[in-house]
Design brief:
Elements lengths: L1 H22 L10 H11 L3 H5 L3 H12 L9 H7 L1 H17 L9 H7 L3 H17 L6 H13 L5 H17 L3 H14 L1 H12 L5 H11 L23 H14 L16 H19 L2 H12 L3
Helix pairs in contact: 1-2, 4-6, 5-6, 6-8, 7-9, 8-9, 9-11, 10-11, 11-12, 13-14, 13-15, 14-15, 14-16, 15-16
């Protein structure tokens, strides 16, 4: 605009955009709202120092606008969250409460859960404890995508202890298995593997038994072939909790089960382009377990590999 209409006109527009969001709040969700687009334009023109020096009410309004940004939080938001974490948690709790209470079994995730899940490990860590409390007070999201994101955020963070989480995760896994809602049950089991992998394996054995019947083998294959959320950047994974990554014994159990239930002879062969199905994902998961154990590179891993080759599952 400056090049086409000059500095004066560009300056007037910039001042108008900045003034607009300060004087006009929005109600979440407002992703496709023209008012939100104007306000977000004004916020994008503000410097971080300008935003940080605003009143708490205006910063809260800015965060509410940020949740309505398309395709993730706007660029200015992570830095402002670092400076004003308490205000962000207040806004995030309000947004997630609305997502939970208005959720349904939709194909797509809600904006609030999606924005946080695909933000940064620091923002997820900040949100995990309030979200854990929210699930206990507002209830569990009916939207499976939202539930998956919520459990991933909580389980991968260090903000909630394993002793707090484990009983709830076990209970919910068992409850969903009883109702034959296995797609949801796997989400609770995944979270349990992240915080206490030995407890997760024990829970599987307690639920389905130590002997691999055709039905339990079929369910384990389904578990290996499940859809899985991947929202962490590679450089963030070392900061996140994942008990399974360091548990040689449980990885050994999973490897033996994977080779028994889905041996390499069953792996699908594709000659052309394809969309991965359950069989392909089960094959990848078997390799993931084996590579995870090998990557440990310590004495426990070597002993576990030896046990994997000698002991029955």
């Amino acid at each position: 605009m400056r090049e086409r209409h000059g500095q004066l006109i560009a300056g007037l527009f910039a001042s108008g955009f900045k003034r607009y969001w300060r004087e006009n709040g929005i109600t979440y969700p407002a992703q496709s709202d023209y008012q939100a687009m104007i306000g977000l334009t004004g916020l994008a023109l503000q410097s971080l120092s300008e935003l940080a020096n605003l009143s708490d009410d205006l910063i809260e309004r800015a965060f509410t606008y940020g949740f309505s940004n398309m395709n993730g939080f706007p660029d200015w938001m992570p830095a402002l969250i670092t400076l004003k974490p308490g205000i962000f948690v207040t806004v995030a709790t309000t947004v997630l409460t609305q997502d939970i209470t208005s959720s349904s079994e939709e194909k797509f995730s809600s904006d609030g859960f999606s924005r946080i899940a695909y933000s940064t490990s620091a923002i997820r860590e900040l949100t995990a404890a309030p979200l854990f409390q929210l699930l206990q007070t507002a209830g569990i999201p009916e939207n499976r995508r939202d539930l998956e994101m919520a459990l991933t955020i909580i389980a991968r963070s260090h903000a909630v202890s394993a002793s707090q989480l484990s009983p709830i995760l076990r209970q919910q896994f068992a409850a969903h298995v009883i109702e034959f809602r296995f797609a949801e049950a796997w989400l609770w089991l995944d979270a349990l593997f992240a915080i206490d992998s030995a407890a997760a394996w024990s829970t599987w054995i307690a639920t389905f038994g130590a002997l691999w019947s055709p039905s339990s083998a079929s369910l384990f294959k389904r578990y290996m072939g499940r859809e899985e959320l991947s929202n962490s950047r590679a450089e963030e994974r070392a900061e996140e909790r994942d008990a399974l990554d360091a548990d040689a014994q449980t990885l050994c159990h999973l490897i033996k089960a994977a080779y028994l239930v889905w041996p390499p002879s069953n792996d699908p062969v594709h000659e052309d382009a394809y969309s991965p199905g359950i069989d392909d994902k089960a094959t990848s998961r078997r390799g993931y377990y084996l590579n995870g154990l090998a990557a440990l590179g310590n004495e426990d891993a070597l002993q576990a590999l030896d046990r994997c080759s000698r002991l029955p599952t």
